[in-house]
């Protein structure tokens, strides 16, 4: 039968187990659908603007640390508040919008980020910094679940490609944030953060247009060919639950490791190699640029060869590079961060589409759950690694995190989804 989102679901069929293989929808070449690239471009651009705003917060940590005399543990708590806010609310937003889509909530979420930016630019104590971080986190919680749904709706059946295009915008914004912080915020101080409210206003405009397109699709009650159709009996509820848990474990390893870069890589470079703050931001930009490149590759490759090989290779394949990183000089540190970023980031589009194929009709919930969990694990990682840095030194953070990709071995237990 069809659910309220036009996706095929089985009547209590989750109680039946199809073994290790579940058939999913044919790609766009079979369905004849064409991706709505203008909408995908708008989503990618708005994701860029949204995550650019978010990335400003960790990018100016050295400035905030000096100005407010913060310990590493307090720095980690700022990230924890931001990412916990996003992680707790995202699944709730996704579950609600699965039943009642809210096209213009996208622009509303960007408005919350705008308020957080303005507060960050004038905050005079640590409590206001935490509140500003929470507002930006709330904006992310509202933005990601509905944006994930619109990306799939506009995919034309090329789900991996659509998720890559959507997510690469976010990664590009995350990469640009430190660069802009180095040349705008660091030289001119905390108050210059207010200039980035123009970025938020532009995002609100783009998302209002995307919301109009989405609302039009809802009014027309179209059943686009981009919707997944189950062709075989799905896995049992227990098997699906175990599989989702494995995927979330992989997200944990990915985002816990990424937290070491987003929050502490600049401190690591400054402490170990004596580089300046602007130089450290440029090196962080190199890493985040590699993350963006890996994101755009992971989805289309998954469309061609399947999600599981991409997940398996992207999580575990990064291990040799992470093990080498703590022992490298400055040049090789920068070089190693390129394959680390590319390989690690290629997993996220494949993981998200894989989960959507496991739970057809729950696109918002899947988007909210996985993006929310990613934010939460990043926040938890930042908080824990901040304490590690305070007690054992910043270099110990990367020696410890080097082994996280070993968790990728759990990908061996994922069932194969046959298209």
Which fold name fills CATH's third level, the topology?
Answer: Growth Hormone, Chain: A
| Terminal CA distance | 20 Å
| Number of E strands | 2
Helix and strand sequence: EHHHHHHHHHHHHHHHHE
Radius of gyration: 21 Å
The number of helical elements comes to 16
The assigned CATH architecture is Up-down Bundle
User: Any idea what the shape is?
Assistant: globular
What average pLDDT do the residues reach? 74
CATH superfamily: MFS general substrate transporter like domains
Summarize the main sheet: 2 strands, parallel
Beta content comes to under 5%
Structural class based on helices, strands and sheet pairing? mainly alpha
Specify the helix fraction band: over 70%
Q: Runs with pLDDT <50, length 5+?
A: 1-21, 23-32, 223-233
**In order across it, which strands form the biggest sheet?**
1-2
**How many domains, in number, for the residues?**
1
CATH class equals Mainly Alpha
Domain Major facilitator superfamily (MFS) profile: 39-419
Keywords: Membrane, Transmembrane, Transmembrane helix
Transmembrane segments: 71-89, 126-144, 165-186, 192-215, 240-260, 280-298, 310-328, 334-354, 366-386, 392-414
Protein name: MFS transporter
């Amino acid at each position: 039968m069809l659910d309220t989102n036009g996706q095929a679901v089985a009547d209590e069929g989750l109680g039946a187990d199809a073994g290790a293989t579940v058939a999913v929808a044919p790609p766009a070449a079979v369905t004849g659908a064409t991706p709505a690239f203008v909408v995908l471009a708008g989503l990618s651009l708005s994701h860029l603007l949204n995550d650019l705003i978010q990335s400003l917060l960790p990018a100016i940590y050295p400035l905030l640390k000096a100005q407010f005399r913060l310990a590493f543990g307090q720095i980690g708590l700022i990230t924890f508040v931001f990412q916990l806010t996003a992680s707790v609310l995202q699944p709730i937003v996704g579950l609600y919008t699965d039943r009642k889509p809210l096209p213009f909530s996208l622009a509303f979420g960007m408005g919350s980020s705008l308020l957080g930016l303005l507060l960050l630019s004038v905050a005079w104590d640590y409590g206001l910094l935490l509140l500003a971080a929470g507002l930006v986190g709330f904006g992310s919680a509202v933005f990601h679940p509905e944006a994930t749904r619109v990306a799939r709706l506009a995919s034309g059946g090329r789900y991996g490609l659509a998720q890559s295009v959507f997510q690469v915008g976010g990664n590009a914004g995350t990469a640009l944030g430190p660069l802009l912080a180095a040349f705008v915020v660091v030289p001119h101080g905390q108050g210059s953060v207010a200039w980035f409210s123009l970025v938020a206003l532009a995002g609100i405009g783009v998302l209002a247009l995307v919301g109009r397109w989405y609302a039009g699709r809802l009014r027309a009650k179209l059943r686009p060919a981009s919707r997944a159709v189950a062709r075989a009996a799905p896995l049992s509820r227990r098997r699906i639950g175990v599989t989702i848990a494995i995927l979330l474990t992989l997200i944990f390893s990915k985002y816990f490791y990424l937290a070491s870069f987003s929050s502490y890589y600049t401190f690591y470079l400054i402490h170990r190699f004596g580089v300046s703050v602007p130089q450290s931001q440029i090196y962080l930009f190199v890493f985040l640029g590699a993350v963006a490149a890996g994101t755009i590759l992971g989805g289309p490759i998954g469309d061609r060869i399947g999600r599981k090989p991409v997940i398996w290779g992207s999580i575990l394949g990064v291990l040799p590079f992470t093990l080498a990183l703590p022992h490298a000089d400055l040049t090789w540190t920068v070089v190693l961060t390129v394959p680390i970023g590319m390989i690690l980031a290629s997993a996220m589009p494949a993981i998200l589409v894989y989960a959507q194929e496991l739970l057809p009709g729950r696109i918002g919930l899947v988007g909210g759950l996985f993006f929310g969990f990613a934010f939460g694990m990043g926040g938890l990682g930042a908080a824990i690694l901040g304490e590690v840095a305070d007690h054992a030194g910043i270099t110990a953070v990367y020696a410890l995190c080097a082994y996280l990709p070993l968790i990728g071995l759990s990908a061996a237990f994922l069932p194969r989804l046959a298209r």
